[in-house]
Specification:
elongated, 4 strands, 8% strand, alpha+beta, 330 residues
Length: 330
């Protein structure tokens, strides 16, 4: 006597629909990851362009400072040779000129480094010199906080991922619950005896052992709870991040206004006056060096503030999750 049966699983309790929905969630999550990666690449390229413009402005500034301090050093040496300047004062001026030359070298190295990173991001060959950048600038923005917060709630990448993870784990928990009802297995069966061969229908139901389905449900429930906690945390953290970035933008704008106002013009006038008086011998070297440092520091700080404004704006773009109106920045 010979028996044989071939059984095919017939899933029920909505398992096929659940599996299809899980696959759709996976596709949606992959598309979201791709869109986030594209936005991150665009933001990083914009960040490096801003850093390149900043480094070029620094090179230009340090070149001007080094030229002025070099002229002062030459004049100091000439006055010393004519016994019109104290050797200590001349040494201080020479040291100041040396510091400006080192700052110029450092800013050029920074420009070279930023250019290399930008070329790598753009996929251009090393040594490409055709990258054009506009000078860093900024116009005060009238931003609507509620509108930006709403954009962040809709498009924020981390929040969107957390929502999908929660839905994904929810589906896994439902599937683990349906696993308590085993699939019905149905198929043809054959039985061969001496009297002949008979055909029939074989029916089977697998019985899971060792509590596997319960363990799977417990694990799925834990993952679902973790996804709920992550979504709750991100829902509370995202508005805080956006608010902090907006506060930082406002603070930097106030700082830029102070650096671009009377303070900047006053330091330039003071430096020119100190330089003219020192060359005629009516101004001491310490006042000259102090005016020179103040002139340099306020311009360097202004460039750094412009860069921080641009980078904070880009951080806000990533937090919101969608390109903002960058035409507002000049």
């Amino acid at each position: 006597e010979i028996e044989g049966a071939l059984r095919f699983a017939l899933p029920w309790s909505g398992r096929l629909a659940a599996a299809r929905h899980a696959a759709e969630l996976n596709v949606e999550l992959a598309c979201l990851d791709l869109a986030t990666a594209r936005l991150r690449a665009a933001v990083e390229a914009d960040r490096q362009l801003a850093r390149l413009a900043w480094s070029r402005s620094l090179v230009e500034l340090h070149h001007a400072l080094a030229s002025r301090s070099s002229e002062q050093a030459q004049l100091a040496v000439q006055r010393q040779e004519a016994n019109l300047a104290d050797p200590l004062e001349v040494s201080l001026i020479l040291a100041d000129a040396s510091r400006d030359r080192r700052a110029l070298i450092e800013s050029r190295n920074e420009e070279t480094s930023v250019t290399a990173v930008l070329l790598l991001l753009a996929g251009l060959p090393p040594g490409e010199t055709g990258i054009e950048t506009a000078p860093l600038g900024w116009e005060p923005l009238a931003l609507e906080r509620e509108s930006l917060l709403e954009l962040a709630r809709v498009h924020g990448p981390a929040l969107a991922v957390a929502r999908l993870r929660r839905e994904q784990n929810g589906q896994e928990l439902k599937q683990a619950g349906r696993a308590r009802l085993p699939d019905l297995r149905l198929g043809p069966a054959v039985q061969r005896e001496e009297s002949g061969t008979s055909w029939g229908l074989a029916v089977g139901i697998p019985l899971p052992l060792f509590g596997r389905t319960r363990a799977d449900r417990d694990a799925a429930r834990a993952r679902q709870q973790g996804a709920e906690d992550a979504l709750d945390l991100e829902s509370r953290a995202l508005p805080v991040r956006v608010e902090l970035l907006l506060d930082r933008l406002e603070a930097l704008e106030q700082q830029l206004a102070d650096l671009s106002g009377e303070a900047a013009s006053a330091t330039e006038s003071a430096f020119r006056l100190a330089q003219a008086r020192w060359s005629t011998g009516t101004f001491d070297v310490l006042h000259l060096l102090s005016a020179h440092r103040a002139f340099a520091e306020i311009r360097i700080e202004r460039l750094n503030t412009l860069l921080q404004l641009r980078e904070t704006w880009l951080d806000l773009t990533m937090a919101v999750g969608t390109p903002l109106d960058l035409s507002l920045i000049h």
